[in-house]
Structure formats: structure tokens, C-alpha cells
Input
Amino acid sequence: MMQFGKIAVIGAGNVAYTLCNVLKSKEMSPCCVLVRNEAEAEKLRQKFNVNVVSDYEKVLESDFLIIAVNDDSIAEVASHLIDYKGLAVHTSGTKSSELLNRIERYGVFYPLQTMSKDREISFDEVPLLIYANSPEDLIRLRGFALQLSSKVKYCDDEQRQAIHLAAVFVSNFTNVILGIGGKVLKDNNLPLSIMEPLVKEMIEKSFKNSPENALTGPARRGDMATIQAHEEMLSNHPKEQEIYKILTNYILENYHKNEKL
Amino acid sequence: MMQFGKIAVIGAGNVAYTLCNVLKSKEMSPCCVLVRNEAEAEKLRQKFNVNVVSDYEKVLESDFLIIAVNDDSIAEVASHLIDYKGLAVHTSGTKSSELLNRIERYGVFYPLQTMSKDREISFDEVPLLIYANSPEDLIRLRGFALQLSSKVKYCDDEQRQAIHLAAVFVSNFTNVILGIGGKVLKDNNLPLSIMEPLVKEMIEKSFKNSPENALTGPARRGDMATIQAHEEMLSNHPKEQEIYKILTNYILENYHKNEKL
Output
């Protein structure tokens, strides 16, 4: 467990919070967390009983550093770490590992999960996508990651960026589609919660078979009468109607099967 | 349990299959199932050990009839049932109850769930949306539905059609979005299965809070550099790129919060 020596974290956002929580649960709490905002620092101190610092001095003494700041701040943070002797990784799904290349030993540690401060999640099943600029550090990073999750995967920048793009589809876009469903229901004084069993069963089915095999509905059947009725029902919501049309056409063009039951 | 007397089912598709299975599990197996296709009839006989018939004679003797055929066949089926004395319901999310109005006692029994022959599901938590053309039959239908699920809800045609439209968004469109994520991953020799923990956590979060509160990602942050990189990555997939753009713009216009972590 101590092969990494002292672990430090930079950041006070959703990823930093979740990391502090996961590390604490594995008795690997960081030696320090660097946070610039004093209010956020105090919250972290109270929540995780960790040593929260406001300058880089302590961080430079660590052996392993997880830079869990937002994408646009990574370069600025890295500029303070040019003399860092440990292994520094960022946690971004989309930013190049090369943002850290002025540090001698660097890499990426990208947990493929949506994280929020108010949800305590386990990393046990979360894919941890790792990269390091030397084989030795890749082995070390892998050893660290395997203590947190059974799903550790080597990924270069290009693969990680493709995964991040796919994640935007399956997470963010799925989310916004759920929101539109909720809006249609709200117009009729109905709660989104009635959709929970349907959504969960569809997700189960999609991963068990494949999304293509799990697909049902009017576009899949080529049921143009229902499609037209739906488009008319959305006439007061032109943006949502446009999304309905483009996704329906996509299904009609790619997945329409003329199955008669 | 016997307040309905003899239950009959018409159909051999996903809904009819699932109904036979659910009714059997509650020891309420139908007295007969009407199926026109002989191959399908034989499958149903073997699977559920029920009396499968090919004409309307036996069906007319039942007390409660569930017409679980595809939407376009409901009217034709109803034309054979003008003398039916029991309560006849269809199971469509989208078709008017009035398709059955030449039958004396009619209604709708719409299970809000995606169903497949190869997945045995329970109705315990499935919303059952019911309608009947008389208060007495509505009470009977409610009693029946409550034996299958704890979530029984009265719905007129208009509400049911709104629910069906919402279901197309949260189920079919979510499904096709997962498929696009899978396509992006496949291009990079990666399996969709790595997305399962992310998708499931996002779904949990969306129903626990709301989709709006659960939304993260580049469009939510207004991260135009990542959005542009994603669009370029999709340049070989113009249809998927178009979907990326429209959903990203929808988020930018409706949900963009300039949160700095």
C-alpha cells in the first residue's frame, strides 16, 4: 500500500472530493490537499480531516500528486511543479498528458465516472484509465489504481479522448434527453419518476445485449402515424421537436426494421 | 383473484409474451391466447402451457380480454369483438381507447415498460396505466392491475399519449445515444461495456435529484475548446456530428452554468 509513499491532491471540486473520500476509505488518505479558496479548504478539512494547504511547498514533498483541477487550470498548476520529483498525474478525460511535460515524471489518472460532492461513490467497478511517460511509472500507477478498482486500463491520449467523447454521448446527452422527457411529463402534471423502471430496464437490456438490439419504439417500427402525432404534440416546443426529428430520422435511416408482430 | 373470471389474451408479440409470463407467475394464467400464426402459437403453448386458439370463439367466452397486438392491428381485432360482453382493453401507449368503442365495455391497460420475449421481467414496480369507459370497470381494472403492480395509475388518452412521447425520449432516444457512444468506442477498438458504471450512476443521480442537477460535461461548463475538438473527432461521422451539435447547443442554451471549480 505504501509503494507510493506520500500522496498529495490538488483541487477542491467534484473529482478532488471523491478522490479524498475513496482514498480515505482505502486508508490511503492524502498527506495534503492544496486548495486556493479558503472556504473550500475549510469544508475539505471538516469533511475528511485532511491537511489542507494553500501553497505548493508541502505538495513538492509528496511522492505522488493527483492534479484534480478543472481542465483550464491544469497548465497553470503545472507551471508551479517544474521542480517536482514525484509522479504527477492529471485527471482530465480530454486534456493531453503533454500539459504536464515540463515535470520530469507525469501521467494521467482518469476515473471514468460522473462525480458530485453530494454522492459518495465507490471506485471498485469504475474504469480507471491510466497513462505515464515511463514504463516504470506506468507500473507504479497501475499498482496504485488496482488498489482502488478492479478495472484499470492503459490508455494513450487519443484513446482517452475518444472515451471522453463517447462519455459525453452516453452520460451528458442521455441526461439531457431524460430532462426533455421530464419536461413533456411536467407539461401534463406527471412526474419523471414514473419513467424509472422503464429507463433502468432499457439500460440493463442495452448493456446485456446491445443498444441496437434493445431498441424499440415508433421509429424502429417505421410507425409514421405515431411519429407525426408526436411531432405535433411538440409543436409548442420547437427545440425539443427538432431533437425529436433528428433522432427519429437517425433511427429510421440506421435501425428501422419492418417487423410485424 | 377471480373477480375477473376468465382472462383471455390476443397476440404473440413481446407484450403478449410478457403478460403470459407475469399472469402465470401470479397464478392468473389466461384461459386462452388467440394467435393467428401457427409457429408462434406452438412457441406460446410450449413456453407457458396455455390454451392457444386460432379463432375468436373461445375469446368471446372470457370475462376480461387483453388485446396485446401491434398498434396497427387493434382496429381489425376489435372488429371481431363487437358482440363481446366482457371488458376488452388494449395495451398501446399511443392509440386512442376509442379504437375499441364498438365494444360495450372497453378500456386501456398500458404497462410502461420495454418488453422482449427473451427477458423475463416482473411487473411489481412497473407503472400500469389504466382507463375504462365506465367507473365500475375502472374499479375492476384497477383491482386487476393492483394484483400485478404496486404502481397503478388512471390515465386518459391524452395523458397516456404524453407519457408515450416522453417514453420515446427517455427509452428509445437514450438507447440510440448509447449506440452512438458504442460506435465512437468501436472506432477505437474499445467496448461499450466500459461505460456501464458511468451510465448507471448518471441514471441514479438523475432520478435521485433531477436530470438538470445531474448534468455535467463540456457543454454544461461552456468549454468551447473541448466541444470543438469533439466535433472535429466526429468529422467522419456527419450524422453523429449533427446530433452532437444539436444536443450541445441545446445544453448551452438551456443549462450552461459558468461554474468554476
